[in-house]
Amino acid sequence: MKKVLLVAASVAVAAMSVVSCDNNGASTTLKDEVDTIAYDFGVAQSEGLKQYMTMQLGVDTAYMDEFIKGVREGAMNEPEAKKDAYMEGVKIGHQLQQMAKGLSQTIYPDDSTKAVNVKCLMDGIINGLNGSEKMTAEEANNEFNEKMAMRLFGDNKKAGEDYLAANKKKEGVQTTPNGLQYKVLVEGTGALPGDSTVLKVNYEGRTIDGKVFDSSYSRNQPLEVNMANPTVIEGWIQVLKMMPAGSKWEVTIPQELAYGARNMGEIKPFSTLIFTIEVME
Questions:
Q1: Whole-number Å distance between alpha carbons of 253 and 270
Q2: Which of helix, strand or coil describes residue 265?
Q3: Are the beta carbons of 276 and 204 closer than 8 angstroms?
Q4: In the chain, which residues fall in CATH 3.10.50.40?
Q5: 83, 225, 247, 276: least CB-packed within 10 angstroms?
Q6: Angle between helices 137-167 and 118-130 (to 10 degrees)
Q7: How does the average pLDDT of the chain come out, rounded?
C-alpha cells in the first residue's frame, strides 16, 4: 500500500511539473494529464510544422524567434477582426512576391536578371480593392492579355501585315474595306445565304508559313454553319455572306478578324490566317 501511494505521489508531481526551457523556449505548467497530452501532442507536431514552415511557407530558420513570436500571438491572443485582417493581408503580400517572380519569368524568359516591379503589382491590386481604379477587373484582364500577347507575339502581327501587303498585289486578289482578302477559285452559281441558312462548308486552314492547322477535307466531314448563330470567326462570317453556293475561294483573314490576341494553340496571337473555303450547299 505504501508503494502504491509513492507511485501516485510521483504521478501527481509530474502532472503539476513545470517544463523548463532555455530563453528561446516556453515554460509551461502541466496541471493534469490532459495538459500533458496537449503538450506531448504539440511536441509531436513541431517537426512537421518546421518542414512546412521552411518548405511551403518559405520562412528562413534564421528568423525562428520571429516565427515563434507570431505563433504565440496567433494562438494566445483573442481573435480581433482588425488584427486578423492585417495578418491575412501580410500573407497575401508575401504571395505577391511569388506572383511577381512568376510574371517576371513570363515576361523575361531568357533573362533572369530582369524582374517586374512588385510595387506596381501591389498598387494595381490595392487600387482595385479600394475602388480608386476606374478600370474594371475584366477590362484590366483584357488589356493585360493583349499587352502580354503583343510583347510575346508582336512579331506575328508584323509578319501578318507584311504578308497582307504583298498578297494584296497578287493577280485576282480582292480586298474588302476592312482588310479581308479573297481570290475566287471556283465561281458558284447558287444563291447567297440568308440570315437563317445552314451551310455545309469544306475548308482547309493554314498559317502564312504554310502550316495546315485544320482541315475538313482530311476528316471527310464538312462543317455546318448556321448563319442565324454562326460560331465561327468574324472573317468567316463576312466572307460566307459573299459566297454563292458552289463557290470555292482562297481567303486571307487579318488577325483582327480572326483570333486577335487570343492564343489558340497552333494558332498564335495576332496570326493572319489563310483558308480555302468551299460552300457546298
A1: 11
A2: coil
A3: yes
A4: 157-279
A5: 83
A6: 120
A7: 87
Q: How confident is the model at residue 9 (pLDDT cuts 50, 70, 90)?
A: very low
Topology, domain 157-279: Chitinase A; domain 3 (3.10.50)
The Cα 183–Cα 172 span in angstroms is 6
Structure-block grid coordinates of residue 97 = 512576391
Let me know if 36 is exposed, middle or buried by CB neighbors in 10 A (0-12, 13-18, 19+).
Answer: middle
What is the CB neighbour count within 10 angstroms for residue 113? 5
**Mean pLDDT value of segment 124-135:** 90
Q: Is the dihedral of CA 215, 217, 222, 228 positive or negative?
A: positive
Question: Tens digit of pLDDT for each residue in 83-121?
Answer: 888 888 888 988 899 999 999 998 888 898 989 899 999
The per-residue pLDDT for range 21-34, each reduced to its tens digit, is 444 566 678 788 88
Asked whether 67 and 57 are in contact (CB, 8 A), the reply is: no
- For residue 29 the three cell numbers come to 505548467
SS3 66: helix
SS3 174: strand
Q: What is the pTM of this model?
A: 0.63
Could you tell me if 182 and 239 are in contact, meaning their C-beta atoms sit under 8 angstroms apart?
Answer: yes
Reply yes or no on whether the pLDDT at 138 is more than 60: yes
Question: How far is residue 93's CA from residue 261's CA, in Å, rounded to a whole number?
Answer: 30
What separation in angstroms does the CA of 114 have from each of 83, 120, 132, 152, 155?
A: 35, 15, 29, 16, 21
Q: Where are the beta strands (DSSP E) in 90-172?
A: none
